[in-house]
Amino acid sequence: MRASLVELEAVAAVARHGGFRAAARELGMSSSALSHAIAALEERIAVRLFNRTTRSVALSAAGDQFLSEIAPALQTLEKAIENVGEHADRPSGRLRLNMAPGAARWPQEICAPSKAGPVGEEQASTPFLSPNRISALVPTSAMSVSSSLR
């Protein structure tokens, strides 16, 4: 039996808000879609997670146990997503270039660390080859290579 991340977040949101309308608003979905997602999960696992009446929604004993077990995992996933976002600002890692042997022997002044300022509105992000230096060396037909280095 598998549960999707959306279903697990739905269970947590309904439990947190004590109802489908506020939970659906938080998750950006309709109350009906949220209710159907939870009903489908309950049917697949053959356990009722919520006791529903026309006026209230409350966790069942099984739902309370289920939520206490999935809540730490959901928090861990949320934190991992936030942490990986820290790397979105600029590229990092090793840059490998495949080129002809003659092109690999660029003069020292071209490959020296760049102290270039802003290029257009962006700052050169590689310490060895600035976009200005690449554009001076690379034909215009290959300029897509230099744009990937910014």
3D structure, described in words:
53% of the residues lie in helices and 7% in strands. The chain has helices spanning 5-17, 20-27, 31-45, 61-84, 101-104, 108-111, 131-137, 143-147, and strands at residues 50-52, 57-59, 118-119, 122-123. Helix 1 (5-17) crosses helix 2, helix 1 packs across helix 3 and helix 2 (20-27) packs across helix 3 (31-45). By secondary structure, it is mainly alpha-helical. A hairpin with a 4-residue loop joins strand 1 (50-52) and strand 2 (57-59). The protein contains 8 helices and 4 strands.
* Sheet of most strands: 2 strands, antiparallel
Uncertain stretches? 118-127, 140-150
Average residue pLDDT: 77
**Outline:** elongated
Work out the helicity level: 40-55%
* Structural class by helix and strand composition: mainly alpha
- Taking Cα atoms only, what radius of gyration do you get, to the nearest Å? 27 Å
β-strand number:
4
